Amino acid sequence: MQDELGSTVAETSYRQIRADIVFGRLAPGQKLKLENLRSLYVTSVSTLREVLSRLASEGLVVAEGQRGFEVAPVSVADLREVAELRLLLEVHALRQSFERGDVDWEALLVSAHYKLARMEAAMAAGDTRKAEEWKRYDWEFHQALIAACGSRLLMEAHSAIFDKYLRYQMVALSYRGAVAEKEHRQLLDAALARDSATAEAILRVHIQGGVEHALAKGLLKE
Question: What is the pTM of this model?
């Protein structure tokens, strides 16, 4: 029972710290001092070391040997690499999902798009307080696109790389407005029509557009 409790505490801390990194509450390059984190996340130093080591294996944290840990830095080169990997995974999964998707998948996709569109409308109206919800629904929509691919490992790999891409969007406060809304609608239409070629072309423009928009903010180093 104690082992289970410890595992639960570690998992909760892991999810909280991971979310804080992805959504930019813990900034790129920020030193992660264990004593500060201990009070912030109400957990033990040993649990924090375990959590940070796990996040380091995911590339979200950098282990500095005896000097401790810091949030992984961001760079233009890394963003481009993350975007290319996301595109590779999402296109591969998307093709399989379009072939295998049934009416339940279509319902999931339409529902995910509806929630995303509502949040995009709030962002367009200037409510930046909705930024985290917007990105959560963005994630849900893109996960829904590939939900029928039939591979749990592929879904997990896509989710992990999507989070890294999302971190860049949050760091750069990159919201593309009506352009991204239109592309999401086009992706939905292509999915319902099982038109993978069109969806792939839109997705490439969509992801590359997100990269260029983030870079235009001038907040990332080469």
Answer: 0.86
